[in-house]
Amino acid sequence: MSEENLQEDANFEPDEDPSRLASDEAELGDVAGAQAKVKKLREQLKEAREKRDEYLDGWQRCKADSVNARKETLAEADRRAERLKMSLIEDIIPALDSFDMATGSEAWAEVSDGWKTGMEHVRNQLLEVLARHGVERFGKVGEAFDPRMHEAVQELDNVAGESHSIVKILRFGYSEGNKVLRPAQVVIKK
After folding, report:
1. Which of 18, 47, 118, 146 is surrounded by the most beta carbons within 10 Å?
2. Is the pTM of this model over 0.85?
3. Number of domains in the chain
4. How many other CB atoms sit within 10 Å of the CB of residue 22?
5. Are the C-beta atoms of 169 and 141 separated by less than 8 Å?
6. Is 25 within the bounds of a domain?
7. Is 141 helix (H, G, I), strand (E, B) or coil?
């Protein structure tokens, strides 16, 4: 190196003063600290989002379970109401059978007309209650025998009527819609 260059190196003075350099280093430290803080905040945000998603999933499962439990409870209540309704219907039908047996007996002819009318009115009220609940009474003399709806208790040869027609009703049948609750017991012609 030449002497001139050495002189220049020896006389070298920085363009910036040392306090300014210290300030730059502090700013660099602050930037590094800020970056570390941002990184930590991002991690906390990520954890918060994961917990939020976990809680949201749990809440949604709980809500779905609650909705399903409510539906099941309502369905069970409907099934129970239907069973209770059918139980009541099954209890009313024998009372109607008793009315029918009474009206078919010889003693019925000796009962006063007022009493007969009153008893028939009570029977009709019971039949109307059943009808309001979708239960219909069936079985008529002269109808064709249907093994899905009738139970043949006896077959007779020496009676008027068409073959396999009902000649006598022993016990009426009851149905709800297309469902036979109890078949009618009948006597048919062979």
Report:
1. 146
2. no
3. 1
4. 10
5. yes
6. no
7. coil
